[in-house]
């Protein structure tokens, strides 16, 4: 059965049923997979799967899951997907799915997955599955080619090139019988011929494979095989032309092995110089394969990298590659000589390291620290020797661990620190470095398990270090716990400035201002020249309302205040204050700056946003913007065109809480509007006109017009205003005031939200009519 | 047999049909081609005549007579040139002049431009006076292009005047509104003013922002927005990004569209100009595929048009430009994040979902936006840093729509669950986890369960007692401590065991072929558990604590009541917090009963 014919029909049916998105994903998932755009494919998959399940489309589910596996397993070599592959096999062999043509492909996914875990070790099983599957179908199935490729790949994995070639010929003949092309099988043919040393024929095979229609993944695979063929033919210009770039190879792990193999063979031919840059790229690939559980491929790639690294003197990379090989050994299904290979490489590495230059025997530790190194390898080698010479120097341990981490050997760093912790139980530096690294690598759970907070009985410097690590852990999300750690820490080292500073910050976070002030004060006394600390004290004092202290700090910083005016009631110009809600959405409002760190909102906020008018607050006096630009008239502004500094709100001290209602209708004239404003002000209501002269109302003929003879649409100036009503105001009184005013005008006004708040449905309806008549 | 050289016969009718229907996507392109010729004639004058002149192109429309006139005050043509260049298809003087002077400013390429006149006009008249022979004016006349005549005409000033007597099907080219709109589209960046019907104001008085000089950054921003609006019929621009200086001779402007984008929707809007002449708006791929909400105007003399001059050749230069634009866009977005938070906020409101998918496929974009993109959760949208804070250092990803026990436990702790079943979200979280080292908890996996529920060991007595109460033929008992402690038990499916049982069943052998099944069983044989459900008994729960200390047959009844209540609560569709409240009430009642 032709899977693509079914796909086409299914997509059309889905479109017709209004399930366009699912139909789109059915097309896009295979497309992006074949194009080596696996992240794109991954972005679609869960959404597609959810939709297929929602609409109970079992065949579509099998289809999507198969293509997900094509991307994840075949492209990205993710052997950890084996359980999912088995689930797919099970799903695709149920009564309702067994006729789905993609069922065969699920079997292929399974064989692929074992091939990626350890291809040579599962050779027999892979061949058996392929043969069994091929017996179920014939060459008219599109799957015939894919299953044949998988079988030939198994033979290539065990280097049985002759049988591989036989299978190529067999499949090619079968396909020819149904007038089909061998397609991707030609790539397998080229590999088999290459293995048999028949490079010219391999080239011929590849030249007859156009690759058209298979997508970029197959194109890149073919390009790398072609490159290997050119290497075998020593056709160096062609090799140069067919090299796949690192970026292209990184699109899918399926390209890694050949990418490294090509450089390895070129190096052997004396045509490739191993550089640090190349090894970094190779290690990136190796790491991906390790993470994906592609044990055999990781082993092979690591082996080539180790040899290349050693050949150019990069012993650190060689050691990392060998460590990777060691880690793969237990993951292999069969050893097949892997242990011997690792042992041999290890011997070579030991010999290489023994030949490296040694530190001078007369070198002092101080002189060692003053040395400069030309490369990471050199520095690491020197540090390791120094560590061997002075193993009890904790600073050296920390430096060596940092260097390990720097070269990508984080696990070595952690192991060194863990071992040193036991050996140097009084070292705070080692404890601090270990905790930081562990927190980074294992998160909260790993850290708390290895470094319990119960520090009683530990040497003082270790207690301090561990408590610092806990402060780092807690200070963002659990300030109370951070404070407890800081208190404990300060009990050991009462004058530690960094701890006092952190305590001030955390206490302020906990709104324990008086205690925070005491901490700031200690710091200001100790470092009187540091204005940053004075600002810290000033802000906390402002939050606490300790105005004398605010004045004292502000005057030292350089502020001058009018006498007789409260410190938070000065006119220090207009600023903008930014409020951030729990979703991170920002609201910015104009405010009157009333003190060094205080302001009152003067902005009437739009409907639909929190009404902050009249709020008094404390802000962080470090501005969020710079007025580094100038506008057309030379006025300073920021890049967004703000003319005022923007500050972050720290705390709202007083929130009068206004409700916002609208007032709409024909403008009563400036004088009358002013009268209305005064009447409302008596009720503590703020009237704010929001419309300008461009707001013009279109009055339909005869609507609301005493002059019934008018036959034309009349244009009248409009008024749209906000009424800011205090939360505890008497809404009835406000309504009466508006009613009295409106009734005395030639054209009525409307205030529907206020009537809604009063629950006055009849008048609300009348105002709706007015709104209609005046096109409000 | 001797060979003979013969001329290929050209069927001009057929050729014009091909041009009209195939080479040029719309016959209106003829207008562009003729204006372009006029422009090149002006440049030729400048290059060859050697003295300055205020150039102008004037258009006249006469809808009553179906006439369009294109007039320029450029170089004009001599008698011989009329024969060489107007009467010979594919022979353009522009190409010769470009080669001779190495100028980049001339637009014409293939010498086919004039031919387009025949696509739209029955009769073409060209009155031309060359600057080389200003005293002689020539009239070239042709109907349909097959035959032509050249005669001397009444003297007129230097330049050319082309009169198109339009075919019936192209009469819209005699409408001044239509012509003005076309000129605005094709010629908006041409430096030579183009007027219509003697109106004083040129139709093409647009200065591109990259040509602006001596303006403040703020003025430039405003002009960029106004410029982008000219090219963005559907969506007003939200913010603009200039193309930085480059060695590609490339100028341009990017902008972010205002219309909301849906997942991978594609509204890329690209206008390409070559030497200031509009060529195409069909080169969306100059923008990255993920940039479905971005507009671009780009101008370069180095783009190579195809023969129709309505698309570009995808050569090495094209690819370099594409990469450069991608980088400029990502850097520009990054700058918006850092320097224009309000504009970025507006962009996020419109395009957050598309940006999630885009960041998945573009590492640089991911880097630029990772702190501000918001992910959808069951309690609203949050940035990853906010989620990490709310979720105590981890991201909880829910890959399926269906509710699970984990949802309930996490929701009760106020931890947002990220909707991993929406476009790009799951892939984005995985990427974030890999690149930033944030822990990702995939709900619905055994690993996720173990991370959520802290397994504890209990005394042998308690283990025996509670196991006896809660163990069932298909339920494995595990002991744990988890929040909220109102929940006494929680049941999960054991996917490994289910997989094992399905694959190792005799029934599987009847469905799945033997070699494949054997291969699958290689894996399932390594799975030890075979019970398909797991119950985690919460040792923090007061009822469980009480049960662990009770003896007697009634204890089993109490345990059954607990199981029934939990099962019913887990199956319910009520909100998670109300379920916890119910379980809390239930627990209190149970304790009272047990005390009695």
TrEMBL record, chain A:
Top-rank taxon, per record: Bacteria
Protein name: Tetratricopeptide repeat-containing protein
Annotated source species: Marinobacter zhejiangensis
Origin organism lineage: Bacteria, Pseudomonadati, Pseudomonadota, Gammaproteobacteria, Pseudomonadales
TrEMBL record, chain B:
Binding locations of ATP: 33, 37, 72, 91-92
Keyword Nucleotide-binding set for record: yes
Keywords, alphabetical: ATP-binding, Chaperone, Nucleotide-binding
InterPro entries: HATPase_C_sf, Hsp90_fam, Hsp90_N, Ribosomal_Su5_D2-typ_SF
SUPFAM superfamilies in alphabetical order: ATPase domain of HSP90 chaperone/DNA topoisomerase II/histidine kinase (SSF55874), Ribosomal protein S5 domain 2-like (SSF54211)
Protein family membership: Belongs to the heat shock protein 90 family.
Name of the protein in question: Molecular chaperone HtpG
Organism per entry: Marinobacter zhejiangensis
Upper taxonomic lineage: Bacteria, Pseudomonadati, Pseudomonadota, Gammaproteobacteria, Pseudomonadales
